């Protein structure tokens, strides 16, 4: 039995050596990760890109029935002054789109005539055009997605409604996006 | 081959001096004298052609980078300046642009050669897998390069392709922003794409070294698809140089004639006219199409009704190539002796071309104009959408179902014992003057 104790002792020596290997390996992995992270993180948005957070827009520039496309954070934003006929038609409809939303949920209280949405198709990012398509709204030329006058997806491969960005009315005719 | 012994004998004093210090001449000489199966046909010349393509792209690319400015305000104009003001700049730019197409023509033929003759089978799996890595890097590099002129197709191609990554659940959105360097495709994106477009070709070159190393270690396949027995080495192989350097050289000249025809007489035939319109982040062209060499994969992407599902299918179409050596259950390498499989292979080639054709069409457009049709799930049956789905199904069935099953069920034709047997009376043992001249043209 004494021999087996000696063997265990040798095993114990090996364990201490193993510890050095593991510690050295762990230090190398840690140092590697610390070195790699800044090399990855440098590709995330830079401070000047993040600083371009919000813009203001004067709604009096938009005529009834017109759509103005403005650029915000490098993306198009549709600001559309909808006609009373369109608003009436949308108000009569139940919830639609994906996820199902009512038109009221996509506009601001008291400003139903103005629809503000990001102008990128939720499929692969192309810019839909207004006035074509089967639902009285936008049609995306890239892969044939149809949106209604509330910017809700009604047909085609796009998975979601046109995104309503964070915006607020700073006065009755000015909105701040972002 | 691995057991290829060095036959180099340094002759001059300089060579002897160098050989005992850095045997680089020996390395080159042994490399070029590699015993090569003597029955290789012209499908075996695309490796050399691809090496040339890589060299052309790197050389013209470095030159173009001396004049190109990777900034959204200046990129498009700097390319036009290359076209108008830089000495011979139009030629260099057209060579680089058409060079990408030539690169892909050659790589597709190279891959189909490997597929037909079983060049991916043991002991050549690593040659094939490294080749698949090279193919994937080529696609990535070509995509990054196409963004640089900052035309409409550049911009919206980048938008659509980066959005594919955004389709990945959970991590997609952060990775998308990381890749773009902001909320949208912008200067940060262009700037980094330039850096990576410069880097990746050198990674490809590194992979080509591994590809050739694996090739030289396992030995070249040949149209008969048999391993050359040890005792037949002398009879069935010839040194790579000068026999195949000259043959490859001849093929390269033919290929360069095709290349030059495009560069000099129809430099824009393979491109898209909309890329001569500067990028406009607010307007998407009515019909955006990728470059021709991406069309089959783009078609597979669009065939799947689900956004993320389409992305998975597209990457799976390339991913399945990596495991090809383990999907083919047949012991016979060359399809020359597999008549059943050969039929499926021909259909596969046609389906690949069909996918490319479908990728360029609008999904809703009818395949046969005017033919009455009916709605099937989410589209008319008589539409490119459903034709693409049919082709996509065959593409995957070919690898995942047909290859494993046909390999087990088929009865192959008798396989010759040596590569000389099919062409030389007596298996080439008696080297008569009658036949050998025609050996290379068969197949």
Automatic annotation (TrEMBL), chain A:
Name what cofactor the protein needs: [2Fe-2S] cluster
Keyword set for this entry?
2Fe-2S, Cell membrane, Disulfide bond, Electron transport, Iron, Iron-sulfur, Membrane, Metal-binding, Translocase, Transmembrane, Transmembrane helix, Transport
Looking at the Swiss-Prot or TrEMBL record, what is one Pfam family this protein matches? Rieske
EC category name:
translocase
Name the InterPro entries on file. Rieske_2Fe-2S (IPR017941), Rieske_2Fe-2S_sf (IPR036922), Rieske_Fe-S_prot (IPR014349), Rieske_Fe-S_prot_C (IPR005805), TAT_signal (IPR006311), Ubiq_cytC_Rdtase_Fe-S_su_TAT (IPR019470), Ubiquinol_cyt_c_Rdtase_Fe-S-su (IPR006317)
Per the UniProt entry, the Enzyme Commission number(s) are 7.1.1.8
Which positions are tagged coiled coil?
Answer: none
- In this protein, which residues make up the domain named Rieske? 82-176
The membrane spanning regions, by residue number, are: 20-40
Q: Name one GO molecular function term.
A: 2 iron, 2 sulfur cluster binding
Keyword check for Disulfide bond, yes or no: yes
Q: Which GO terms describe its cellular component?
A: plasma membrane
Q: Does the UniProt entry include the keyword Nucleus?
A: no
Q: Where in the cell is it found?
A: Cell membrane
What the entry lists under PANTHER family is as follows: CYTOCHROME B-C1 COMPLEX SUBUNIT RIESKE, MITOCHONDRIAL
What does the sequence similarity comment in the record state about its family?
Answer: Belongs to the Rieske iron-sulfur protein family.
Further remarks about this protein from its record: The Rieske protein is a high potential 2Fe-2S protein.
Query: Assembly state and interactors?
Result: The main subunits of complex b-c1 are: cytochrome b, cytochrome c1 and the Rieske protein.
Q: Could you tell me what this protein is called?
A: Ubiquinol-cytochrome c reductase iron-sulfur subunit
Native organism? Brevundimonas viscosa
UniProtKB/TrEMBL annotation, chain B:
- The residues that hold heme b b562 are 96, 197
Binding-site residues, heme b b566: 110, 211
**Which domain of life does the protein's organism represent?**
Bacteria
Gene3D superfamilies, alphabetized:
Cytochrome Bc1 Complex, Chain C
Give all residue intervals belonging to the Cytochrome b/b6 N-terminal region profile domain. Answer: 14-224
Indicate where this protein resides in the cell.
Membrane
Membrane-spanning intervals of the chain = 42-69, 97-115, 127-148, 160-181, 193-214, 249-270, 307-327, 339-363, 383-406
| Keyword Metal-binding belongs to the record | yes
Cofactor(s) required for function per UniProt: heme b; heme
Any single GO CC term annotated in Swiss-Prot or TrEMBL for this entry: respiratory chain complex III
MF terms in GO: metal ion binding; oxidoreductase activity; quinol-cytochrome-c reductase activity
Q: Name one Pfam family in it.
A: Cytochrome_B
Q: How does it sit in the membrane?
A: Multi-pass membrane protein
Free-text function comment from the UniProt entry: Component of the ubiquinol-cytochrome c reductase complex (complex III or cytochrome b-c1 complex), which is a respiratory chain that generates an electrochemical potential coupled to ATP synthesis.
**Quaternary data:** The main subunits of complex b-c1 are: cytochrome b, cytochrome c1 and the Rieske protein.
Of which family is this protein a member?
Answer: Belongs to the cytochrome b family.
Q: What is this protein called?
A: Cytochrome b
Q: Which organism is it from?
A: Brevundimonas viscosa
Organism phylogeny: Bacteria, Pseudomonadati, Pseudomonadota, Alphaproteobacteria, Caulobacterales
């Amino acid at each position: 039995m004494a021999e087996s104790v000696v063997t265990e002792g040798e095993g114990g020596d090996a364990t201490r050596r193993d510890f050095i290997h593991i510690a050295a390996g762990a230090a190398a992995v840690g140092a590697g990760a610390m070195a790699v992270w800044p090399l990855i993180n440098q590709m995330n948005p830079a401070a000047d890109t993040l600083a371009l957070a919000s813009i203001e827009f004067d709604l009096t520039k938009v005529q009834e029935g017109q759509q103005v496309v403005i650029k915000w954070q490098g993306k198009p934003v549709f600001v559309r002054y909808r006609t009373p006929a369109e608003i009436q038609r949308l108000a009569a409809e139940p919830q639609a789109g994906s996820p199902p939303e009512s038109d009221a949920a996509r506009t601001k209280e008291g400003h139903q005539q103005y629809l503000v949405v990001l102008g990128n198709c939720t499929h692969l990012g192309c810019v839909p055009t207004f006035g074509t398509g089967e639902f009285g709204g936008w049609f995306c030329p890239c892969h044939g997605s149809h949106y209604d006058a509330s910017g809700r997806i009604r047909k085609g491969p796009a998975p979601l409604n046109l995104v309503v960005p964070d915006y607020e009315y700073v006065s009755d005719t000015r909105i701040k996006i972002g | 081959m691995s057991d290829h012994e060095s036959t180099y004998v340094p002759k001059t004093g300089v060579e002897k001096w160098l050989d005992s210090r850095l045997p680089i001449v020996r390395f080159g000489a042994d490399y070029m004298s590699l015993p090569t199966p003597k029955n290789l046909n012209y499908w075996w010349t695309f490796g050399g052609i691809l090496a040339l393509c890589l060299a052309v792209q790197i050389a013209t690319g470095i030159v173009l980078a001396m004049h190109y400015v990777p900034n959204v305000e200046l990129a498009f104009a700097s390319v036009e300046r290359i076209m108008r003001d830089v000495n011979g700049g139009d030629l260099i730019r057209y060579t680089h642009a058409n060079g990408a197409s030539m690169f892909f023509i050659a790589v597709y033929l190279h891959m189909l050669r490997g597929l037909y003759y079983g060049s991916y089978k043991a002991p050549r799996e690593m040659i094939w897998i490294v080749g698949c890595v090279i193919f994937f890097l080529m696609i990535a590099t070509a995509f990054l390069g196409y963004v640089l002129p900052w035309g409409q197709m550049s911009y919206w191609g980048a938008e659509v392709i980066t959005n594919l990554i955004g389709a990945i659940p959970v991590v997609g959105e952060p990775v998308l922003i990381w890749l773009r360097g902001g909320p949208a495709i912008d200067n940060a994106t262009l700037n980094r794409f330039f850096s990576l477009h410069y880097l990746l070709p050198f990674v490809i070159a590194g992979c080509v070294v591994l590809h050739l190393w694996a090739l030289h270690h396992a030995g070249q396949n040949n149209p008969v698809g048999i391993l050359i027995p040890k005792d037949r080495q002398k009879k069935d192989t010839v040194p790579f140089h000068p026999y195949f350097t000259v043959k490859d050289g001849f093929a390269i000249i033919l290929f360069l004639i095709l290349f030059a025809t495009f560069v000099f007489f129809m430099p824009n035939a393979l491109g898209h006219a909309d890329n001569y319109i500067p990028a406009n982040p607010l307007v998407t062209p009515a019909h955006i199409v990728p470059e021709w060499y991406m069309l089959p994969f783009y078609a597979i992407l669009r065939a799947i009704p689900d956004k993320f599902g389409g992305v998975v299918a597209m990457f799976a179409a390339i991913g399945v190539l990596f495991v090809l050596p383990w999907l083919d259950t047949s012991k016979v390498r060359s399809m020359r002796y597999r008549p059943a499989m050969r039929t499926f292979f021909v259909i596969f080639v046609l389906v690949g071309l069909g996918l490319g054709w479908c990728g360029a069409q609008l999904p809703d457009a009818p395949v046969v104009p005017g033919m009455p049709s009916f709605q099937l799930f989410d589209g008319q049956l008589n539409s490119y959408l459903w034709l693409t789905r049919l082709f996509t199904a065959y593409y995957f069935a070919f690898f995942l179902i047909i290859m494993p099953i046909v390999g087990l069920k088929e009865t192959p034709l008798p396989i010759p014992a040596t590569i000389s047997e099919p062409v030389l009376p007596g298996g080439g043992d008696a080297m008569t003057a009658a036949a050998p001249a025609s050996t290379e043209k068969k197949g």
